[in-house]
Write a structure and sequence with these properties.
By secondary structure, this protein is an alpha+beta fold. The chain has 7 helices and 7 strands; from the N terminus they run βααββαββαααββα. It is 34% helix and 25% strand. It is globular, with a radius of gyration of 15 Å. The protein binds adenosine-5'-triphosphate (ATP) and magnesium ion.
Length: 170
């Protein structure tokens, strides 16, 4: 059933509260309409947002990172973006990061950053299975930005019962 995006974002931030505190990360929320309502399954959206926000924090363990979470609905399309000003993704890797098990070599060579490389592939498949798109742009150190767009009619079908994918908890 419909729910407020704001409260969904709040859930995600609560789950990541310790990481946010440890990294002294700044969280910026860009939502022209604070009362914006999303259709579909709240749990599903929480997992999608969690994966993207977790990535932004996890790949950028330095202090003082800014993570921006935004959401707007325009012309029957809901657009959600998660951006950070961290290490970024080299352009050669950008085309591949949605593939299963793909992780940027350079990021993980010293490896204390754990992960399976599955998060993004699952998010992408789930979004696309419901008629949406997800894309990424990156200017290392300045702006790495994931953008989800989903038409309103497709959004209403985002329920866990008809979703083929279940999203990982972390
Ligand atoms: P998992 O999500 O399964 O825990 P993971 O986070 O490594 O593992 P993905 O979420 O699929 O896997 O991300 C794939 C890779 O893309 C990451 O390992 C990282 O190299 C790169 N990446 C993803 N998001 C960012 C980001 N915001 N900044 C820099 N690199 C990123
Ligand atoms: Mg991940």
């Amino acid at each position: 059933k419909p729910f407020k995006v704001r409260s969904c974002i709040q859930d995600v931030l609560e789950r990541l509260e310790l990481v946010i505190q440890n990294q002294q990360a700044h969280i910026v929320i860009e939502m022209p309409d604070e009362k914006l309502i999303l259709q579909g399954d709240r749990f599903y959206w929480t997992q999608v947002l969690f994966n993207l926000v977790e990535n932004a924090l996890k790949q950028n363990p330095r202090k003082g990172l800014t993570v921006t979470i935004g959401c707007v609905r325009e012309n029957g399309v809901t657009r959600i973006w998660i951006a950070d000003n961290g290490i970024g993704i080299p352009s050669a890797d950008l085309a591949h990061i949605f593939r299963r098990f793909y992780r940027v070599e350079k990021h993980h060579s010293q490896d204390d950053i754990k992960g399976t490389g599955l998060g993004l592939s699952i998010v992408k498949r789930a979004i696309e299975a419901h008629g949406g798109t997800i894309s990424v742009t990156s200017t290392p150190g300045d702006d790495t930005r994931f953008t989800i767009e989903i038409p309103l009619d497709a959004e209403a079908r985002l329920t866990d019962t008809d979703s083929e994918e279940s999203l990982p908890a972390s």
